[in-house]
Amino acid sequence: MTLTQLNYIITIAETKSINKAAERLYVSQPSLTSAVQELEKEMGITLFYRSGRGVTLTNDGAEFLLYARQLYSEYEGILERYGKNGTQKKKFGVSTQHYSFAVKAFVDMAKGFDMSKYEFAIRETKTAEVISDVSTMKSEIGIVYLSDFNRKSMEKLLRSSNLTFHHLIDCKAYVYLWKGHPLAKETSIGFEQLTEYPCLAFEQGDSSSFYLAEEILSTNDYPRIIRANDRATMLNLMVGLNGYTLCSGIICEELNGNEFAAVPFRDDEENQNSTMEIGYIVRKNVILSKMGEQYVCLLKHYLEKEEAYTI
Fold first, then answer.
1. Which sign does the torsion angle of CA 276, 157, 100, 168 carry?
2. Which of 4, 33, 165, 207 has the fewest Cβ atoms nearer than 10 Å?
3. d(CA 177, CA 244)
4. pTM for the structure as a whole
């Protein structure tokens, strides 16, 4: 097994195509295929399923890819530090559920570094992808929440992905809506008041469990529900359709503007408000980079500020 072969496997997994990987790597398709077959023979496993549509990882391949990325990342780090002509930028990535405070902390973190020397990435994405990104080291840090409803399932998923959860803040759920909404000036809002308005939820994928939802009461039968996959669309739907979502209520006006409000959610026997424990996840036994340490520090600082969220 060679580092070149590991790079081949990583590139094929990213492009999901032998031909596209060959183009990116500047090698011939037969040479690439031969290198993969040699590695599969040496390891005694099949790394990819091959079809007319491209290639996909086998279960063995997905596990092998995790270790390949770790090993190749360490190799790149050695080149970066000791290579004669090392020019590769240091990388830092965050994957998060849809929280504006996570983006705000990322912005402030990036400002503290010379961005010409670093490659930064932030991904607002589905819960399962946040977990996958951190597990595979695509991102160093992930931002998710736990509650009484999803805790058991989420903790099991995190353990199986070799991840640890670190607490940042506890908060009750709020009704997040446009300031022009008929209910925006209420001191609290009960579930029965929301029935005539569309509930907005972030899409988690066709096969996703209720436990991966970013909103509380995800199992309720809503008469009107619209799913979106990005925060900007969610905000537009709040304005255009008087939609609402049930979330942490932590508002970053610097990024979202001042046209939105968070009103405490008033629970009842059937619709219980639950504490949302927001935290960050990292791979077990991983020491945070300087960017990671600074990012976590800024998260904590931002969330501790009284004006960062409405009570």
1. positive
2. 207
3. 5
4. 0.68
Tell me: the pLDDT tens digits for 263-308?
Answer: 998 888 777 777 889 999 999 988 888 899 999 999 998 888 744 4
CB atoms within 10 A of CB 74: 10
Regions of the chain where pLDDT drops below 50: 306-311
Answer for the pair 159, 151: CB distance below 8 angstroms, yes or no.
no
What HEC string does 83-134 produce? CCCCCCCEEEEEEECCCHHHHHHHHHHHHCCCCCCEEEEEEECCHHHHHHHH
Q: Where are the alpha helices (DSSP H) in 199-272?
A: 231-241, 253-256
265: part of which helix (H) or strand (E)?
strand 260-266
**pLDDT tens-digit map of 84-117:** 555 556 789 999 999 889 999 999 999 988 878 7
Strands 163-171 and 199-202: unpaired
Both tokens assigned to 53? 């549509």
Q: Inter-axis angle of helices 29-43 and 3-15, to 10 degrees?
A: 110
The DSSP letter of residue 250 is B
